[in-house]
Amino acid sequence: MFRQNVGVGDRDLRIVLAALFGLIALFAPFGGAWQIIPALLALVMLATSAAGFCPLYKVLGINTCRSKSASTGQEQ
Predict the structure, then answer these.
(1) Is 3 inside any structural domain?
(2) Structural domain of residue 30, as residue ranges?
């Protein structure tokens, strides 16, 4: 399993962004890419929020988890 690298505040922000991108996709005035791209972004934000892991953060070496034990998935 992957080590978590997305903290609670980051997860909350991702959920808000997912809702925003979802609304943009739903009410986009034009079809095609104007609906597909925001919908895909919303799905990515929801998936990374639910998993607590962001592959881009892994590549960039970013970790927004508060404690080291939270990032390893161990109980405190």
Answers:
(1) no
(2) 8-72
Along the 76 residues of the chain, how does pLDDT read in single tens digits?
Answer: 789 999 999 999 999 999 999 999 999 888 898 899 999 999 999 999 999 999 999 999 999 998 665 455 554 3
Residue 1 belongs to a domain: no
pTM metric for this prediction: 0.79
Its sign, for the CA torsion 18, 53, 62, 9, is positive
Tokens 């903290």 appear where? 7
Domain count, the chain: 1
Alpha carbon distance 1, 74 (integer Å): 12
Amino acid letter, residue 34:
W
